[in-house]
Amino acid sequence: MSAFRTLDDADLAGKRVLVRVDLNVPMDGDKVSDTTRIDRILPTIREIADKGGKVVLLAHFGRPKGRDDKNSLRQVVPALTLALGRPVTFVDDCIGEPVAKALAAARNGDVLLLENTRFHAGDEKNDPDFVRALAANGDLYVNDAFSAAHRAHASTEGLAHVLPAYAGRTMQAELEALSAGLDNPTRPVMAIVGGAKVSTKLDLLGNLVKKVDVLAIGGGMANTFLASRGVDVGKSLCEHDLVGTAREIEEKAKAAGCEILLPVDALVAREFKAHPGHRVVPVGEVGADEMILDAGPLSIAEVVLRLEKVRTLVWNGPFGAFELPPFDTATVAVAKAAARHVKAGDLVAVAGGGDTVAAMNHAGVIDDLSYVSTAGGAFLEWMEGKALPGVEALRKR
Ligand SMILES: Nc1ncnc2c1ncn2[C@@H]1O[C@H](COP(=O)(O)OP(=O)(O)O)[C@@H](O)[C@H]1O
Ligand SMILES: O=C(OP(=O)(O)O)[C@H](O)COP(=O)(O)O
Questions:
Q1: 90, 228, 286, 316: which has the fewest C-beta neighbours closer than 10 Å?
Q2: How far lies 215's CA from each of 11, 208, 360, 377, in Å?
Q3: pLDDT, tens digit, for every residue of 171-202?
Q4: What is catalysed by this protein (predicted)?
Protein backbone atom coordinates (compact mmCIF):
# COMPACT_ATOMS: atom_id res chain seq x y z
CA MET A 1 0.00 0.00 0.00
CA SER A 2 1.32 3.45 -0.89
CA ALA A 3 2.31 5.74 2.00
CA PHE A 4 0.54 8.58 0.18
CA ARG A 5 -2.83 9.19 -1.33
CA THR A 6 -2.31 9.51 -5.07
CA LEU A 7 -4.49 10.65 -7.95
CA ASP A 8 -5.88 7.09 -7.98
CA ASP A 9 -7.59 7.89 -4.66
CA ALA A 10 -9.00 11.29 -5.64
CA ASP A 11 -12.48 12.05 -6.93
CA LEU A 12 -11.51 14.86 -9.32
CA ALA A 13 -14.62 15.50 -11.43
CA GLY A 14 -15.95 19.01 -10.97
CA LYS A 15 -13.38 19.79 -8.25
CA ARG A 16 -11.11 22.84 -8.00
CA VAL A 17 -7.72 21.15 -7.68
CA LEU A 18 -4.81 23.24 -6.34
CA VAL A 19 -1.72 21.65 -7.88
CA ARG A 20 1.69 22.75 -6.50
CA VAL A 21 4.22 22.42 -9.30
CA ASP A 22 7.81 23.64 -9.74
CA LEU A 23 8.00 26.19 -12.55
CA ASN A 24 11.29 27.64 -11.30
CA VAL A 25 12.75 26.99 -14.74
CA PRO A 26 16.02 28.28 -16.26
CA MET A 27 15.54 31.32 -18.51
CA ASP A 28 17.48 32.86 -21.36
CA GLY A 29 16.16 36.42 -21.40
CA ASP A 30 12.37 36.07 -21.37
CA LYS A 31 12.39 32.52 -22.86
CA VAL A 32 12.44 29.24 -20.95
CA SER A 33 15.79 27.65 -21.82
CA ASP A 34 15.07 24.17 -20.45
CA THR A 35 11.56 22.72 -20.26
CA THR A 36 12.31 19.56 -18.26
CA ARG A 37 10.42 20.73 -15.16
CA ILE A 38 7.44 21.66 -17.37
CA ASP A 39 7.53 18.35 -19.26
CA ARG A 40 7.57 16.36 -16.02
CA ILE A 41 4.34 17.90 -14.65
CA LEU A 42 2.32 17.31 -17.81
CA PRO A 43 1.02 13.83 -16.83
CA THR A 44 -0.48 15.18 -13.60
CA ILE A 45 -2.07 18.21 -15.27
CA ARG A 46 -3.53 16.10 -18.10
CA GLU A 47 -4.86 13.41 -15.77
CA ILE A 48 -6.68 15.90 -13.52
CA ALA A 49 -8.05 17.82 -16.50
CA ASP A 50 -9.14 14.65 -18.31
CA LYS A 51 -10.94 13.41 -15.19
CA GLY A 52 -12.94 16.66 -15.12
CA GLY A 53 -11.07 18.67 -12.49
CA LYS A 54 -10.32 22.38 -12.79
CA VAL A 55 -6.52 22.51 -12.63
CA VAL A 56 -5.23 25.46 -10.59
CA LEU A 57 -1.43 25.57 -10.79
CA LEU A 58 0.48 27.08 -7.88
CA ALA A 59 4.21 27.72 -8.20
CA HIS A 60 7.07 30.01 -7.20
CA PHE A 61 9.66 31.64 -9.44
CA GLY A 62 13.02 32.93 -8.17
CA ARG A 63 13.40 34.49 -4.77
CA PRO A 64 11.49 37.79 -5.04
CA LYS A 65 11.03 40.21 -2.17
CA GLY A 66 7.49 41.26 -3.00
CA ARG A 67 5.96 41.63 -6.47
CA ASP A 68 8.20 42.34 -9.48
CA ASP A 69 7.96 41.75 -13.24
CA LYS A 70 11.28 39.87 -13.38
CA ASN A 71 9.83 37.05 -11.29
CA SER A 72 6.35 36.93 -12.80
CA LEU A 73 5.14 33.49 -13.85
CA ARG A 74 3.48 35.16 -16.83
CA GLN A 75 6.75 34.63 -18.75
CA VAL A 76 6.38 30.84 -18.38
CA VAL A 77 2.87 30.74 -19.94
CA PRO A 78 3.99 30.37 -23.60
CA ALA A 79 6.30 27.42 -22.84
CA LEU A 80 3.71 25.74 -20.61
CA THR A 81 0.95 26.20 -23.21
CA LEU A 82 3.15 24.81 -25.97
CA ALA A 83 4.19 21.77 -23.92
CA LEU A 84 0.66 21.07 -22.73
CA GLY A 85 -0.97 21.64 -26.10
CA ARG A 86 -3.96 23.21 -24.34
CA PRO A 87 -4.82 26.79 -23.36
CA VAL A 88 -3.55 28.06 -20.01
CA THR A 89 -5.32 30.98 -18.31
CA PHE A 90 -2.95 33.18 -16.33
CA VAL A 91 -4.29 34.81 -13.15
CA ASP A 92 -2.50 37.89 -11.85
CA ASP A 93 -2.53 36.80 -8.18
CA CYS A 94 -2.59 33.50 -6.31
CA ILE A 95 -5.26 34.39 -3.72
CA GLY A 96 -8.52 36.34 -3.47
CA GLU A 97 -11.00 37.73 -5.98
CA PRO A 98 -8.95 37.37 -9.18
CA VAL A 99 -8.64 33.61 -8.59
CA ALA A 100 -12.27 33.16 -7.53
CA LYS A 101 -13.44 35.04 -10.66
CA ALA A 102 -11.23 33.01 -13.00
CA LEU A 103 -12.49 29.79 -11.41
CA ALA A 104 -16.11 30.86 -11.76
CA ALA A 105 -15.50 31.39 -15.48
CA ALA A 106 -13.54 28.12 -15.92
CA ARG A 107 -15.05 24.87 -17.15
CA ASN A 108 -14.16 21.41 -15.90
CA GLY A 109 -10.86 20.38 -17.51
CA ASP A 110 -9.54 23.96 -17.83
CA VAL A 111 -6.03 24.86 -16.68
CA LEU A 112 -5.23 28.04 -14.70
CA LEU A 113 -1.75 29.22 -13.72
CA LEU A 114 -1.68 31.55 -10.71
CA GLU A 115 0.94 34.27 -10.19
CA ASN A 116 4.12 33.55 -8.15
CA THR A 117 3.19 32.42 -4.63
CA ARG A 118 6.36 34.13 -3.31
CA PHE A 119 4.93 37.55 -4.19
CA HIS A 120 3.24 37.10 -0.79
CA ALA A 121 5.56 36.86 2.22
CA GLY A 122 3.07 34.42 3.77
CA ASP A 123 4.16 31.64 1.42
CA GLU A 124 7.72 31.25 2.71
CA LYS A 125 6.54 31.95 6.29
CA ASN A 126 3.90 29.21 5.99
CA ASP A 127 1.53 31.77 7.50
CA PRO A 128 -1.80 30.11 8.49
CA ASP A 129 -3.79 33.09 7.16
CA PHE A 130 -2.07 32.78 3.79
CA VAL A 131 -2.65 29.01 3.78
CA ARG A 132 -6.36 29.65 4.35
CA ALA A 133 -6.41 32.28 1.59
CA LEU A 134 -4.88 29.77 -0.87
CA ALA A 135 -7.20 26.98 0.30
CA ALA A 136 -10.29 29.17 -0.20
CA ASN A 137 -9.99 28.61 -3.95
CA GLY A 138 -9.56 24.82 -3.86
CA ASP A 139 -11.38 21.63 -2.93
CA LEU A 140 -8.34 19.33 -3.17
CA TYR A 141 -4.56 19.77 -3.00
CA VAL A 142 -2.07 17.87 -5.14
CA ASN A 143 1.68 18.30 -4.61
CA ASP A 144 3.70 17.52 -7.72
CA ALA A 145 6.73 19.65 -6.78
CA PHE A 146 9.24 17.19 -5.36
CA SER A 147 11.97 19.72 -6.19
CA ALA A 148 10.45 22.23 -3.75
CA ALA A 149 9.51 19.63 -1.10
CA HIS A 150 12.44 20.63 1.14
CA ARG A 151 10.67 23.95 1.73
CA ALA A 152 8.05 24.07 4.53
CA HIS A 153 6.09 26.82 2.79
CA ALA A 154 2.34 27.46 2.64
CA SER A 155 2.05 26.16 -0.92
CA THR A 156 4.38 23.17 -0.43
CA GLU A 157 3.43 22.07 3.10
CA GLY A 158 0.73 24.13 4.81
CA LEU A 159 -1.99 23.35 2.28
CA ALA A 160 -1.65 19.60 2.86
CA HIS A 161 -2.99 20.11 6.39
CA VAL A 162 -6.14 21.98 5.44
CA LEU A 163 -7.30 20.27 2.23
CA PRO A 164 -7.50 16.58 1.22
CA ALA A 165 -3.94 16.08 -0.05
CA TYR A 166 -2.52 13.83 -2.76
CA ALA A 167 0.88 13.15 -4.34
CA GLY A 168 1.04 14.00 -8.04
CA ARG A 169 2.50 11.63 -10.62
CA THR A 170 5.92 13.36 -10.72
CA MET A 171 6.18 13.40 -6.95
CA GLN A 172 5.46 9.64 -6.99
CA ALA A 173 7.88 8.97 -9.84
CA GLU A 174 10.75 10.97 -8.28
CA LEU A 175 10.45 9.21 -4.92
CA GLU A 176 10.27 5.79 -6.56
CA ALA A 177 13.22 6.43 -8.91
CA LEU A 178 15.47 7.87 -6.20
CA SER A 179 14.67 4.98 -3.84
CA ALA A 180 15.30 2.41 -6.56
CA GLY A 181 18.63 3.99 -7.56
CA LEU A 182 20.03 5.18 -4.26
CA ASP A 183 18.44 3.46 -1.22
CA ASN A 184 21.40 1.06 -1.02
CA PRO A 185 24.10 2.70 -3.14
CA THR A 186 27.09 0.64 -4.22
CA ARG A 187 30.29 2.09 -2.74
CA PRO A 188 32.41 4.04 -3.24
CA VAL A 189 29.91 6.89 -3.60
CA MET A 190 30.93 10.29 -4.93
CA ALA A 191 28.83 13.44 -4.67
CA ILE A 192 29.44 16.47 -6.85
CA VAL A 193 27.99 19.69 -5.50
CA GLY A 194 28.43 22.91 -7.42
CA GLY A 195 26.27 25.76 -8.63
CA ALA A 196 25.36 29.12 -7.22
CA LYS A 197 22.96 28.52 -4.29
CA VAL A 198 25.84 28.40 -1.82
CA SER A 199 24.14 29.64 1.34
CA THR A 200 21.14 27.30 1.11
CA LYS A 201 23.16 24.21 0.19
CA LEU A 202 26.28 24.64 2.30
CA ASP A 203 24.67 23.52 5.56
CA LEU A 204 23.49 20.22 4.18
CA LEU A 205 27.03 19.24 3.12
CA GLY A 206 27.80 18.64 6.81
CA ASN A 207 25.49 15.61 6.76
CA LEU A 208 26.21 14.60 3.18
CA VAL A 209 29.90 13.98 3.99
CA LYS A 210 28.76 11.25 6.40
CA LYS A 211 26.98 9.44 3.54
CA VAL A 212 29.52 9.63 0.72
CA ASP A 213 33.17 8.62 0.24
CA VAL A 214 34.21 11.54 -1.95
CA LEU A 215 32.73 15.02 -2.21
CA ALA A 216 33.85 16.99 -5.28
CA ILE A 217 32.97 20.65 -4.93
CA GLY A 218 32.55 23.03 -7.85
CA GLY A 219 30.96 26.36 -8.81
CA GLY A 220 30.43 29.14 -6.30
CA MET A 221 30.44 26.50 -3.57
CA ALA A 222 34.09 25.65 -4.36
CA ASN A 223 35.07 29.32 -4.22
CA THR A 224 33.71 29.54 -0.67
CA PHE A 225 35.75 26.48 0.37
CA LEU A 226 38.87 27.85 -1.37
CA ALA A 227 38.42 31.15 0.49
CA SER A 228 38.11 29.20 3.75
CA ARG A 229 41.54 27.70 3.00
CA GLY A 230 42.95 31.20 2.61
CA VAL A 231 42.91 31.32 -1.22
CA ASP A 232 42.23 34.78 -2.68
CA VAL A 233 39.33 34.19 -5.10
CA GLY A 234 39.24 37.78 -6.38
CA LYS A 235 35.76 38.84 -7.54
CA SER A 236 34.44 35.26 -7.75
CA LEU A 237 30.98 34.29 -6.51
CA CYS A 238 31.80 33.45 -2.91
CA GLU A 239 29.99 33.64 0.44
CA HIS A 240 32.79 35.13 2.50
CA ASP A 241 30.71 35.16 5.69
CA LEU A 242 30.27 31.37 5.42
CA VAL A 243 33.96 30.41 5.35
CA GLY A 244 33.63 29.28 8.99
CA THR A 245 30.86 26.85 7.99
CA ALA A 246 33.02 25.58 5.13
CA ARG A 247 35.86 24.91 7.59
CA GLU A 248 33.50 22.99 9.91
CA ILE A 249 32.34 20.86 6.97
CA GLU A 250 35.95 20.02 6.12
CA GLU A 251 36.42 18.86 9.74
CA LYS A 252 33.23 16.76 9.63
CA ALA A 253 34.40 15.22 6.35
CA LYS A 254 37.76 14.32 7.88
CA ALA A 255 36.07 12.71 10.90
CA ALA A 256 33.74 10.74 8.60
CA GLY A 257 36.54 9.60 6.29
CA CYS A 258 35.09 11.51 3.32
CA GLU A 259 37.63 12.98 0.94
CA ILE A 260 36.96 16.52 -0.26
CA LEU A 261 38.08 17.39 -3.79
CA LEU A 262 38.47 21.07 -4.57
CA PRO A 263 39.59 22.60 -7.87
CA VAL A 264 43.34 23.11 -8.16
CA ASP A 265 43.08 25.25 -11.29
CA ALA A 266 40.39 27.43 -12.83
CA LEU A 267 39.15 29.32 -15.87
CA VAL A 268 39.03 32.97 -14.89
CA ALA A 269 37.75 36.12 -16.60
CA ARG A 270 37.18 39.76 -15.76
CA GLU A 271 33.66 39.86 -17.21
CA PHE A 272 30.61 37.67 -16.78
CA LYS A 273 29.77 37.07 -20.45
CA ALA A 274 30.36 34.47 -23.17
CA HIS A 275 33.93 34.33 -24.53
CA PRO A 276 35.12 37.34 -22.54
CA GLY A 277 38.82 36.55 -22.91
CA HIS A 278 39.79 34.09 -20.20
CA ARG A 279 42.88 32.39 -18.84
CA VAL A 280 43.64 29.16 -17.02
CA VAL A 281 45.42 29.66 -13.70
CA PRO A 282 46.25 27.67 -10.57
CA VAL A 283 43.62 28.59 -7.95
CA GLY A 284 46.27 30.49 -5.99
CA GLU A 285 46.83 32.94 -8.85
CA VAL A 286 43.40 34.47 -9.43
CA GLY A 287 43.75 38.23 -10.05
CA ALA A 288 42.02 40.69 -7.73
CA ASP A 289 39.74 41.80 -10.61
CA GLU A 290 39.06 38.28 -11.93
CA MET A 291 36.31 35.71 -11.34
CA ILE A 292 36.59 31.93 -11.29
CA LEU A 293 33.94 30.84 -13.80
CA ASP A 294 34.86 27.18 -14.29
CA ALA A 295 37.20 24.46 -13.05
CA GLY A 296 40.45 24.08 -15.01
CA PRO A 297 41.88 21.06 -16.91
CA LEU A 298 43.81 19.54 -13.97
CA SER A 299 40.71 19.70 -11.77
CA ILE A 300 38.60 18.09 -14.51
CA ALA A 301 41.17 15.29 -14.90
CA GLU A 302 41.09 14.63 -11.15
CA VAL A 303 37.29 14.26 -11.09
CA VAL A 304 37.26 12.13 -14.26
CA LEU A 305 39.88 9.86 -12.67
CA ARG A 306 37.66 9.41 -9.59
CA LEU A 307 34.83 8.33 -11.86
CA GLU A 308 36.98 5.32 -12.80
CA LYS A 309 36.92 4.23 -9.16
CA VAL A 310 33.54 5.14 -7.72
CA ARG A 311 30.42 3.07 -8.34
CA THR A 312 27.72 5.63 -7.53
CA LEU A 313 27.57 9.34 -8.42
CA VAL A 314 25.08 11.90 -7.12
CA TRP A 315 25.40 15.33 -8.69
CA ASN A 316 23.80 18.70 -8.05
CA GLY A 317 25.11 22.00 -9.36
CA PRO A 318 27.34 22.66 -12.38
CA PHE A 319 31.11 23.13 -12.05
CA GLY A 320 30.94 26.50 -13.78
CA ALA A 321 28.79 29.12 -15.42
CA PHE A 322 27.91 26.54 -18.10
CA GLU A 323 25.46 28.86 -19.88
CA LEU A 324 28.44 30.97 -21.05
CA PRO A 325 31.00 29.10 -23.15
CA PRO A 326 33.80 28.22 -22.52
CA PHE A 327 32.74 27.99 -18.87
CA ASP A 328 30.74 24.84 -19.70
CA THR A 329 33.97 22.87 -20.23
CA ALA A 330 34.27 21.12 -16.84
CA THR A 331 30.55 20.34 -16.53
CA VAL A 332 30.37 18.89 -20.06
CA ALA A 333 33.59 16.85 -19.67
CA VAL A 334 32.52 15.32 -16.35
CA ALA A 335 28.96 14.69 -17.59
CA LYS A 336 30.27 12.86 -20.66
CA ALA A 337 32.68 10.79 -18.56
CA ALA A 338 29.84 9.84 -16.18
CA ALA A 339 27.64 8.85 -19.13
CA ARG A 340 30.43 6.63 -20.53
CA HIS A 341 30.70 4.78 -17.21
CA VAL A 342 26.94 4.35 -16.95
CA LYS A 343 26.95 2.90 -20.46
CA ALA A 344 29.81 0.55 -19.53
CA GLY A 345 27.72 -0.63 -16.57
CA ASP A 346 30.19 0.32 -13.85
CA LEU A 347 28.44 3.44 -12.49
CA VAL A 348 25.02 4.48 -11.24
CA ALA A 349 24.82 8.23 -11.89
CA VAL A 350 21.94 10.39 -10.65
CA ALA A 351 21.93 14.13 -11.33
CA GLY A 352 19.35 16.70 -10.25
CA GLY A 353 18.47 20.38 -10.02
CA GLY A 354 16.79 22.97 -12.23
CA ASP A 355 20.06 24.23 -13.74
CA THR A 356 21.81 20.87 -13.46
CA VAL A 357 19.15 19.32 -15.71
CA ALA A 358 19.74 22.14 -18.20
CA ALA A 359 23.49 21.47 -17.96
CA MET A 360 23.00 17.73 -18.60
CA ASN A 361 20.83 18.58 -21.61
CA HIS A 362 23.53 20.97 -22.81
CA ALA A 363 26.12 18.18 -22.43
CA GLY A 364 23.84 15.82 -24.41
CA VAL A 365 23.74 13.16 -21.67
CA ILE A 366 20.20 13.58 -20.34
CA ASP A 367 19.17 10.11 -21.59
CA ASP A 368 22.50 8.47 -20.77
CA LEU A 369 22.59 8.90 -16.99
CA SER A 370 20.86 6.41 -14.67
CA TYR A 371 18.30 9.00 -13.56
CA VAL A 372 17.86 12.75 -13.85
CA SER A 373 15.79 14.34 -11.12
CA THR A 374 14.11 17.74 -11.39
CA ALA A 375 15.27 18.36 -7.82
CA GLY A 376 18.56 19.84 -6.60
CA GLY A 377 18.38 20.96 -2.97
CA ALA A 378 15.48 18.57 -2.25
CA PHE A 379 17.42 15.70 -3.82
CA LEU A 380 20.49 16.44 -1.66
CA GLU A 381 18.36 16.64 1.49
CA TRP A 382 16.64 13.37 0.56
CA MET A 383 20.13 11.87 0.03
CA GLU A 384 21.16 13.09 3.50
CA GLY A 385 18.25 11.09 4.90
CA LYS A 386 16.32 14.18 5.98
CA ALA A 387 12.52 14.16 6.11
CA LEU A 388 11.24 16.59 3.46
CA PRO A 389 8.37 18.72 4.82
CA GLY A 390 6.44 18.67 1.54
CA VAL A 391 6.63 14.87 1.40
CA GLU A 392 5.94 14.29 5.11
CA ALA A 393 2.79 16.44 4.96
CA LEU A 394 1.39 14.11 2.29
CA ARG A 395 1.76 10.94 4.34
CA LYS A 396 -1.47 9.17 5.25
CA ARG A 397 -2.43 9.93 8.82
N1 LIG B 1 31.94 29.80 -10.64
C2 LIG B 1 30.68 30.24 -10.84
N3 LIG B 1 30.42 31.57 -10.80
C4 LIG B 1 29.15 32.02 -11.00
N5 LIG B 1 28.08 31.22 -11.25
C6 LIG B 1 28.30 29.91 -11.30
C7 LIG B 1 29.60 29.34 -11.10
N8 LIG B 1 29.49 28.00 -11.22
C9 LIG B 1 28.19 27.74 -11.47
N10 LIG B 1 27.47 28.87 -11.52
C11 LIG B 1 26.01 29.02 -11.79
O12 LIG B 1 25.29 28.18 -10.94
C13 LIG B 1 23.97 28.10 -11.46
C14 LIG B 1 23.30 26.84 -11.00
O15 LIG B 1 23.32 26.74 -9.60
P16 LIG B 1 22.15 26.10 -8.71
O17 LIG B 1 20.91 26.91 -8.83
O18 LIG B 1 22.72 25.93 -7.34
O19 LIG B 1 21.93 24.68 -9.42
P20 LIG B 1 20.59 23.79 -9.54
O21 LIG B 1 19.49 24.70 -10.08
O22 LIG B 1 20.93 22.70 -10.49
O23 LIG B 1 20.29 23.30 -8.16
C24 LIG B 1 24.13 28.19 -12.96
O25 LIG B 1 23.28 29.21 -13.44
C26 LIG B 1 25.61 28.54 -13.17
O27 LIG B 1 25.83 29.58 -14.11
O1 LIG C 1 15.00 25.39 -8.18
C2 LIG C 1 14.82 24.85 -7.09
O3 LIG C 1 15.78 24.19 -6.41
P4 LIG C 1 17.23 23.74 -7.00
O5 LIG C 1 17.95 25.00 -7.50
O6 LIG C 1 17.92 23.18 -5.79
O7 LIG C 1 17.01 22.75 -8.08
C8 LIG C 1 13.47 24.81 -6.42
O9 LIG C 1 12.50 25.45 -7.23
C10 LIG C 1 13.52 25.44 -5.04
O11 LIG C 1 13.82 26.82 -5.15
P12 LIG C 1 14.42 27.60 -3.87
O13 LIG C 1 15.81 27.03 -3.61
O14 LIG C 1 14.44 29.06 -4.26
O15 LIG C 1 13.50 27.33 -2.71
A1: 90
A2: 46, 8, 19, 16
A3: 999 999 999 889 999 999 999 999 999 999 99
A4: (2R)-3-phosphoglycerate + ATP = (2R)-3-phospho-glyceroyl phosphate + ADP
pLDDT in tens, 335-363: 999 999 999 999 999 999 999 999 999 99
Predicted model pTM = 0.94
Residue 35 lies in a domain: yes
- How far does residue 134's CA lie from ligand 1's centre (Å)? 32
Measured CA to CA in angstroms, residue 308 lies from 298, 317, 351, 392 at distances of 16, 21, 17, 37
Interface pTM, i.e. ipTM: 0.97
Query: Any residues with Cβ below 6 Å from ligand 1, and which?
Result: 194-197, 219-220, 237, 292-293, 316-318, 320-323, 353-356, 376
Q: Which of 151, 172, 193 is the last residue of a domain?
A: 172
Which residue of 21, 22, 23, 24 sits with most ligand 2 atoms within 8 Å of its CB, as the best mutation to test the pocket? 24
Q: Is the CB of 116 under 6 A from ligand 2?
A: no
Identify residue 184 by its one-letter amino acid code.
Answer: N
Which of 104, 138, 172 is at the close of a domain?
172
Burial class (CB within 10 angstroms; exposed 0-12, middle 13-18, buried 19+) of 346:
middle
